[in-house]
Design goal:
single chain, alpha+beta, Heat Shock Protein 90, 5-stranded antiparallel β-sheet, 5-stranded mixed β-sheet, 10 helices, 18% helix, disordered N terminus
Length: 970
Amino acid sequence: MLRKENICHLFACLFFALDLLLPTSVLCNTHDTTAITSKYAFRRYTTQDGLPQMLTECIHQDRKGYIWIGTLAGFVRYDGFEFVPYLKGGRPENIVAFHEDSLGVTALGFRRKHLAGENGLTDTSPLNNRGMLLNNLNSSSLPPDYLLLENEHEQEREICRLTAEDTETVLRSPLLDEMDACRRVFADTTDGIFYIPTAERTYRVKADGTQLPALLVPQGYSLLRTDSTLYLFAADGVYCCRGASAQRIVSFRFLAPDYGIDACTDRQGNIYLHDAHNLYRFTPTKNKVERLVDGINLIRQMFIDREGNIWLATYQGVYNFFRLNFMNHTLTDRNDILRAISVTPEGHLIGGTLNGKLLEGYTAKELRPLPYPKSKDNYFLPYTARIGQTTYLLGQGDILACEDTRRQWLGLPLLNYRFLAGYGDSLLVATRQVLFVTDRHGRIINTHKGLRDIFCACPDGYGNLYVGTAYGPVRISGNKQVAIHQPDEGIPCTAMTATLQGEILLASGEKLYTVRNDSAIMIHDYESPIRSICQTSDNFLIVAVVNGLYITENRLLQTMFFNRYNGFTGIEPLLANIAEADDGTVWIPCVDQTVSFRPRELTCQYSVPDIELTSIEASTDNVDWHTLPVSTQQITLSYPMRHLRFSFIAVSHSATGNVCYRYRLKGLQDQWSQPQTIRELQFNNLLPGRYRLEIEALIGSFSSSPVTIDIHLDPTLWQRPLFWIILGLLMAGGIWALAYHYYKRHEREQMQKLLRETRLNNLLLKSIRLKSIPHFNSNVLAGIEYFIMNHSVEEANKYLALYSRFTNTLLMDVDKPSRSLAKELEYARLYLMLEQLRYGDNLAYDINISPQADTSVQVPNMMLHTYCENAVKHGLRNKPGRGHILIEVKAKTGGVCVSVTDDGVGREAAATLSATSTKQGLSIMEQQIELYNQRNAEHIVQTVTDLKDTDGNGCGTRFELYIPYNYNYF
C-alpha cells in the first residue's frame, strides 16, 4: 500500500513539473470552446397555459393585483393560478390597451371597448362616437387615462381622455401626425408639456396647442420622467432634458429599435428599456446601460407590476422575469453539465464539469477552461472544499488542488471517492465504506472504517464528526461511533450542514432533523426529497428539494418556497455542494443548469398582498348554492340557510405558493386557524346567532389587513326565546290538564272498582244463598234419612261425610272470585256425587281432561257447579230414565275450553215443564263474567248450545266456557 502511495505521489510531482514546463496545449486543449451562457430565469405563458393567442399586445395590472393581457384574439385576466378568458368564441378582436376606472377594467380595441364583468362576460360599446380609431403604437408612454386617436388614414391625431360615455380631446396638434410607428408621445404631468418625438427632433407642445422650442435630438424614440429628471432615449444613447436643452449622458446603440424603445422604472430607481428583441437596464447612478435579455421575438410592451416583476408582452407569449432574482448558467456544450462549483478567496468562480473540464472566471459569463494535469479521462463529482487560499475539487480517484495558477492532484490512494468536504484545516474524503481525514496536502491523518454507504459528513461546533450513511447518521467522537436514532429507521441521510452556532442539521428523505442527545429531532417535513442543504454566512438556511428551493431567514424564522412558478427554474438540484460567494451569492448545481441568486434579496423584498373575496355562497342543503354579493360587509340569512362558502385570493405573481391564509369565525372560534394554502372556506350547519369572519393572507410571519364580514343568522320560529316561553307555558298547561284528567279518571276508576266489588260481593252472597237453597239441603237430608232407614248406617255416614266436604268447600272459597280449574273440577265432582246418591242409577257423569290442558288456570268460582246444577235440575230431572253429564277440559290457543254437556230434555222442554224456575244461577254467572271482562283485554267467552236429535227435538244442552291464560280477577 505504501509503495502504491509513493508511486502516486511521484506521478503527481511529474505532472506538476509538466504543468510548469510544457505549453498549455500539451496538457489541455486550449482550443476547447467550453463556456457558459447566463440568462435570467423567467416564466413564459403560452396558449398551453390559457392565453387565447401567442401574439400578445399589452399588459395591465388592476388595483386588486390581477394581470390583464391583451392579444390579437381577445384578452384574459390572470390571478397567479389560472387565466379567465374574455371575448371567447365571438369575433376575434385585437386588444391593444386597458383602462381602469370606478366601473372596473375596460379592454380597448381599435374601434370598441369592452368592460370586463364576472365569469368572462363583457359589456361592449363603441370607443367613441366620432368613428376615430385607437393608435396603440405611439401612445404607450401616455398616462393611463390618455389615448391617442386617429382617423382611418392615420391622420388628424389627437390626444383624448376616456370618459364613461365618450372621449374628450386634450390636445389636437398636426405635429402628432409627424410621428412614425416607432415613436412614443409623452405627456409630462409635472409641467403640462407634451413631447412629440420625430426622426429630426422632439417637439414640445402645451395643452392649448402652443409650440415650445424643440429638443434638437434626432432619432428620439421615447421619454420618461423619474422624480426631477426627464430622460430622452434616442438611437445613440440616453439624454437628460432640461427645458429645451438635452445632454447625452450615456452613449449606447440599441440593437433593434425598429419598433421603438419603451421605458419604465422600478421602485429602486432602475430604468428598464426594451426594443423589438432585447431588454436593457439603465442605472442612473452609474450612467450605465446593460443588456439583460436578448433573442425575444418582437416585444410589444413592457410592464413592471407592484411587486417589481418585469412582464413582457411579445409575439411568443408573455414573459415574467420576476425581479431578475435568479440567473441560470448553462454550458454551451450541451453534452456536458457543470457539477461542482466553488468561490476562490479572490472572488473568482471555479468549477468542474461531468466531462472533466475545469473552468475559472471572475463571473459566470467569464468562465473559461483551465489546463490541469490529466493522465487519463477525468470527471468531477459535485463536491468542493476550500482551505485558506486553496480550492479542492473531487475528481476521479483523487482530489485536484487549485491555488493561484497552480493546479495539482493530491495523490490519494486510487479509490472510488464519492464525497469531499472541508474540516477545519483538514479534508474529509469518503468512499462507500471508509471516511478519510487528510491534511491540506493529502496526507491521511485518520481513517474511520465500518461505515456503510457514506453520503456526507460534517463537523459540529463541539468536536464531533457526523457522517450520513445509507442506514442513517452516525456520530464519531475520537474512535467511537454512535448511531443516531431516527424516528424513521432505515432512511438514508444524504445531506448535512452546521448552523452558525455549531448545531448539526441533517436531511433524511423528505425531512430535516437536528440532533439532541444522539437522537434525530424532526424540524420540518418538506414533502419532497431533499437534495442538499446549506447554512450561509449571513444566517440563511437553504434547502434544495427535488421540485424547488426553500430559503429560511433564521432571524425572523420566515421561509419562502421557490419553484418554476416564481423564479427558480432549475430542474432537480443535484446532491451536491452549495457554494457561497463573499457578496452573498449562492450557487446551486442542477441537472440541466446551475442557478445563482442572493437569498437576502429573495426573502426581504416581499410585501403581503391585500386579500380579496371572490365569491360568497349560501345553501340550505349543501348541494344547491346561491351566490351572494361579494361587496357586502354584512350577511343576514334566514332559516334554512345554514351553510356558507367563501372563496378568496391574495394575488401575488412573485410569491406564488408562499401566500397562505388563516381565518377565525368569532362566535364559533376566537383562535386563528393554522395557515393553509387552500383559498376556500366552508361552514356547515351554523347555529342561529351573530358571527364575524376574519380572513388574513400571510407570507412567512407577515400578514395582510384582514377582510371582515359580519354574519347574522336569524333564528326560525322555534329557535326564538318567545316561542319556547309560549311552548313551555302550553306544555305546563297540558301537563296540568293531563295530570288533572288522570287524577279524575283514577278517582272514577277507584269508585267504579268499589262499586264492582260491592256488586260482586252481593252476587257472591246471592250465589251462596242460591246454592244453599233449602230444598237442596232438605233433599240431601231426606236422602240421608232414606239411607238410614233402608241402608246401612255406614252408607248413611258416607253420605253425610260427602255432604260435609261439599259444604266445607263451599264455605272455604265463598269470598274468592276465582280458583284453579283443578279445584273447580273437584268441587263439581263432589256436587255430582251428592246428586248421584240422590238420583241413584238415573244419574251418571264423566270428567275428561286433555293432557295438554293446564288445570292450574284460574276460572270463575262455582262456574262448573252452576252448569252442573242447571243440567241436573232442568235437563235430567224431567227426563224419564237414565241421564248423563259429561265434563270436558281441552287446551286451546291462549287458554282452556271447559264444557258441560247433558242429554236431558233441552232448555225449551225444561222451560215448559219447570215454569217456576228463576234461572238465577246462570244469570249471576253471566254478570260475574261481564264484570271480569271489563278489566281484561282478552275476554272469557261463554257459549250455550241446544242439542237436537234427527227429528229436531231437544236432546240436551252444552255449556262451553273459554278462559284465557293470565286472566285478571279482582
